[in-house]
Amino acid sequence: MSVRAILGATGLLLALHGTAAIACGHCIEDKVAAVYDHAILMKAFSQKHHVAFFAINGTLAASVGTRRSIKAIAESAYGVDKGSARVSVESASLLVAFDPQRVSVAALQRALEQKLAATKLSLLPLRVMDQPAKMNAVDGQ
After folding, report:
1. 135 found inside a domain
2. pLDDT tens-place string over residues 1-17
3. Which of 5, 37, 114, 116 has the greatest CB tally within 10 Å of its CB?
4. Looking at the 3D structure of the chain, how many domains does it have?
5. Interacting residues of 76 by C-beta distance below 8 A, sequence separation 6+
6. Which domain range does residue 116 map to?
7. What is the pLDDT of residues 32-79, one digit of tens each?
8. Greatest CA span in the chain, whole angstroms?
9. Is 141 contained in some domain?
10. Distance CA 20, CA 62 (A)
């Protein structure tokens, strides 16, 4: 086998390995992307509300019932906008829009964790957005 063939095979194996790591489901960006809903964000921002993304810690049964249950629990919390909760059981993440005039993100997390305690789940805050993200152009483009 030639050196060129070995280098080519090595490069291919590294490229294949690298693509598998692009969407691992464990990093913050993957968890946020799994529940991201542009319409929810725009509606929340138009009302001067915030959007919180949480990682869900604990054992989740991968089912529609689990997703619906967590969504109902999240939307029953004080200050959460009804219809705003998004849940990904597969990536263990949650999005909720909330009114910061009624509840702080820390108080929201505590309230949600109290409601989730019976299911032995807890939350880890990932990101809170209070305005649309600004995309900056790359110089020269």
Report:
1. no
2. 665 655 455 554 555 55
3. 116
4. 1
5. 115
6. 28-129
7. 999 999 999 999 999 999 999 999 999 988 888 899 999 999 999 999
8. 69
9. no
10. 22
